[in-house]
Amino acid sequence: MKASKRIFQFTILIIIMFSVNIYSNPVAIHNINELLIDHQDSTNWKLEITVIDTGKYYLTSLTDTAYFKDSISVNYNEYIIITQDSLSSPFSINSLGDHITLYRSSDNRIDELIFGNVANSETPAPRPNQSISLIYVGYHHKFYFDNSPTLGNANDTLDASGFVNVYVTNQFGNSVENATVKYGIIWNHPGGVPNTDTTDSNGYFKFKDVSLLTKITVSKSDYESADTTILIEIDSTININLSITDTSSQSIDERFIAIAEEYDLNQNFPNPFNASTSFTFSIPKREYIEIAIFDVKGNKIQELFSGIHESGTYKIEWNSKFLSSGTYFYQLKTNNIIQSKKCVILK
Fold this sequence. Notes:
This protein is mostly beta strands and 347 residues long. The protein has one helix at 2-19; strands spanning 32-37, 45-49, 57-60, 65-67, 80-82, 97-104, 109-116, 131-137, 140-146, 161-169, 180-184, 195-198, 204-210, 213-219, 226-231, 237-243, 250-253, 264-265, 276-283, 287-295, 300-309, 312-319, 326-334, 338-345.
């Protein structure tokens, strides 16, 4: 009968896990559901767990090991709160970072929570009065922070969210419209699916999510993508600026034109020009080269190419659509020479 009861309970738990809302806390599979720590007293903490087997358990941290005073008698769908009083010896949890592991008395590891400034940490350390709570997204789990702990009950995400403002610009600081923004926890893992939206005409996008580490990626056709990972703060707004490089503004025509016998940088045509122009350059041997644009003060404002290039004469197209009218210089630099030419943008 006991074996049949356990099989039934486990089956129900699996069904619950895949039927709940992604921001609720299904019982078990992961047995550590929530942790609240007193930042002033390392022995004053509350740990919420769920187990599916009756028996003796114990906990380990980076400094202590302590057995439960009593065996756990399992009741279906029960959230069990463990405190220092539940254990047979002192047990400290470092609020700045620790590695908590739950074991059966048979030394069978059940679950663990690694947080803060320790190796293999899953999440940063919580702020005072914040709990670390478990959340499921698809086939994955993650720990988030909650300003209103729900120890003894199913976790929720009330008082656990913040806003993120995302501003996307190109390499010249101009807004990028219709850039794709992907965000959400561990969506880059197998089976993970990101939340996806696009920036408006001002290169802006805003979203709200629970307080945890989240990855943000920005991309657009003809642009190099950019990404960052942030910790969303509860009841606050974080501003994120991501710059993506427009790769359509320049290209080197790799078609061979002629054998080059010397270094040469030709005048661009047309000149003056409105948005697009082109020029040719020659190098007599295979070597590292840099082609860049400078303003009249000598500041590099755009790099058109850098890397190893074969000998020959080549044509490069330059789209200056993000630059204002004025005088600029384009430069060919190698280990042997530096050549520059002046050009004028008129808009």
